[in-house]
Automatic annotation (TrEMBL):
Its cofactor is Mg(2+). The keyword Ribonucleoprotein does not apply. The lineage of its organism: Bacteria, Pseudomonadati, Pseudomonadota, Alphaproteobacteria, Rhodospirillales. CDD domains: MR_like_1 (cd03326). This is Mandelate racemase. It comes from the Bacteria.
Amino acid sequence: MRIIDIREKTASIASPIANAYIDFSKMTCSVVAVVTDVIRDGKPVIGYGFNSNGRYGQGALMRDRFINRVLEADPESLIDRENDNLDPFAIWKTLMTNEKPGGHGERSVAVGTIDMAVWDAVAKIAGVPLWKLLADRYRGGVADKKVWVYAAGGYYYPGKDHKQLQDEMRSYLDRGYKVVKMKIGAASLDEDLRRIDAVLDVVGDGQYLAVDANGRFDLETAVAYAKALRPYGLFWYEEAGDPLDYALQAELANHYERPMATGENLFSHQDARNLLRHGGMRPDRDWVQFDCALSYGLVEYFRTLDVMKGLGWSSRRVVPHGGHQMSLNIAAGLHLGGNESYPDVFQPFGGFADGIAVEDGYVGLPEIPGVGFEEKSALIKVMREVAA
Ligand SMILES: O=C([O-])CC(=O)C(=O)O
Ligand SMILES: [Mg+2]
């Protein structure tokens, strides 16, 4: 059993939407295929992965060093004998040969994307959905049968008025979501409050609305927003300040007793540990959003979950960023608190299996082997082109 090839293509996910920090007019992502010599149903098993939005495609890094390390390794060293499968932990170690600690920049995205494809292949070789494989191996066989999801959108968009924002949010509710998320911080506080009021007219109550500032605010602005947001009783207030400014986050906690969320731009278990040690995040109410696709993959995610446990955090406080099926599998198999969803943006990468509807804010899991990409027809089409 061996990996024959690892292929990457950079796909466009460009659109005119913007958050408080960036627009997505040139956004790309890497799509990866890990081709194996294992035959299932008469065809070679191919694992797929992609990196979630926000970081660009990583093909150059992959081709410069990561892919070759795996292809040049002794295939025997990458095998999990106990399970007669590929060994994602050994493959991860090989990917990270001669990489110094710290400075998690873009390589964590390259490794995270390849790691996703490796786990897809592992679950396909085992012939089970990834969520089931994870629950069987690591959680005593108990998987969540459905996962809480919220609809992320509410972007700034040229010419988008309150009515369009309301229509967007209403369409999420119509599709079974209960909690929605919108962007803040690219307009004045006054205008953002009017946008929030408009959305609340649709979703009904602050508990059904999360807001995301994408790291835009300095401390003064973060606190001014906190004071204005407090009376709304929102679901969460996300990434108020710079993702690495733990002192800002800790100070914000002194001005905002409602739930805060952050973590999508922390790319290692060491950074996650720093946030939980120094960022004033409260395990009884706050949320962390580490995204395996951006942060060295599931192998590293196990370490992050261990760090959380050691610092008194339940895995139920994690709701990963990224709206992808990999995190959906991890959420169900490893008992996270839920998952982000992009019902409309970042297509075909956002959203879940075609045939599984969201009901009452929860989504079910695909029953096919692997991550479930084959049940999202527009996505698997793009992935198969990478493998061809
Ligand atoms: O707009 C983005 O960069 C995505 C984001 O923050 C999120 O989904 O929470
Ligand atoms: Mg965010």
